[in-house]
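Write out this protein's structure.
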Amino acid sequence: MCGIVGYVGTANPVNVLLDGLKRLEYRGYDSSGIALLCTEPHPAILRHRAAGKIADMENTIPASFAYTGGGRTAGIAHTRWATHGKPSEENAHPHTDCAQRFVLVHNGIIENHAELRAALPGHTFRSDTDTEVIVHLLEHHYHGDVTAAMEKTMAMLEGSYAFALLSVHAPGTVFFARKDSPLVLGIGDGELFIASDVTAMLAHTSRFIFLENGDYGAMSDRGVEIRSLATRSSVQRPEQRISWDPIMVEKGGYRHFMLKEIHEQPQVIRENIINRVFDNTVTFAGELSIADDILRRIRGLTMVACGTSYHAALIGKYFIEKLVGIPVEVDIASEYRYRDPIIQPDTLAVFISQSGETADTLACLQLVRERGLATLGICNVTGSSLTRATDATIYTRCGPEIGVASTKAFTGQLVCLYLFGLYLARLRNSIPRERHDELLAQLYKVPTLLEHLLADTRAIDELAHTCHRTRDFLYLGRGINYPVALEGALKLKEISYIHAEGYPAGEMKHGPIALIDEDMPVVVIATKGLLMQKIFSNLEEAKSRDARIIALINEGTTADRVDHALLLPEIDELLSPILNVVPLQLLAYRIAVILGRDVDQPRNLAKSVTVE
């Protein structure tokens, strides 16, 4: 949500900032803007904003923004995802104060903005946003020292924020601050960057500093100074190198990032296996810093996540309970943080997030840490807030995921949960070695099986053309594949805007059956497993009410009552979700393309939900 980019250096600032914004488009946005600090004939702020796509803003940038070269420049830019105030040019960032001496971009929510506005009589507000109050507070508190004004302003703000700031009082400098919203510094060769995400800066540097909560400071030709609001003194933060290649965030010949990322899933699974399985044994050497003695003693797991990561956690619950024999609770983060959960001692708390910056998940992590539990993160982004706050992190090794609708991050989370479950099972001797080896052998096959699936998608393409005009879908699954039904329905909703619901198939008679008629496609996950006959009984019930049945079945399965069969290779039921979800990802993708949707940036959605 919202993308921030800032730059200090000698390159054309407009090009650098626009490139950074385009690399952050996946976060979701409805407007954008850019601001530069010019120095001739005197320091002044140049600002340009537009509602809509970045191209709408880029194509209308005034001539005054033209780069003449010959010195260091400073600039900031922003993509806005509306929270307070409708999408419009007036509500787009950057925002300025009354005298236009400060200009600021912000990600987060200022919860007490109404009270702060009321405390600033005489100030003229030009937007409906919560953000604008920050820049007016800076104007109010400025008495010759921008940093001092920031300190006083930050002390008054309630809620979350990451902001970047220019001021005519400090040419050539970008000021910054963060609390509960991500902000990362990039260290280049004679130039400095700041952004919401490393992907905005990968084309320029692989050296990054991840700011902590309460950090603020400035970057200029004198370098970077970081201060802590707790002590109001300078602090040192470690520099980290991110090995992602900039090419990884390009489409690589695919029409959309989502399609590219669907096709990258076999490699994601391979990466995780080859780096963690040696001599037929799962190891997390140098990664899982929670002592084996603690893992042997735990009496249960609590998994907390949002969206697609929540569905991965549900699958992990089935797998780990079956293999390890301990109870696993799964909670939606936005509910868990407010229900005063009863947390048993000797529980391992597992937090799953692609970005590591999901606001609700991070709030739950803080709650659990205060209760003294051991914490484990499953995350894709090195240096993210989640990875810095958990006792240990298992990285999903997906590389950048740009499409807003998560695909390869989901399968990356699944394979990490499978490997962690196998590790726990062997550590606690909860399954025979033969069963452990059998599951590992099956897991080794998954990447190749997926590649075969992805090599021929004609049946999915034909199905998409058959049902793309449908207004409602019902997805049914049982057991470990019930969460796959949830995920399949979510993907269709996210990118095609078609209403879809995922249900446990046994619950069909408790309500959803009333919706079924000849216009309702029912997607049934009916691959082989303990409940296969029961799922076929549910399928018959839907068919007897004239539903169009789309079934995922294994090759060789007889399915006379199925209108459209999507064939999958057979694999152990516990591992089947990782295969079964891919045709559902592709079906959603193909339908969305036929309907002309913006697949990579669906309306109203953000890749990383960094505000509550």
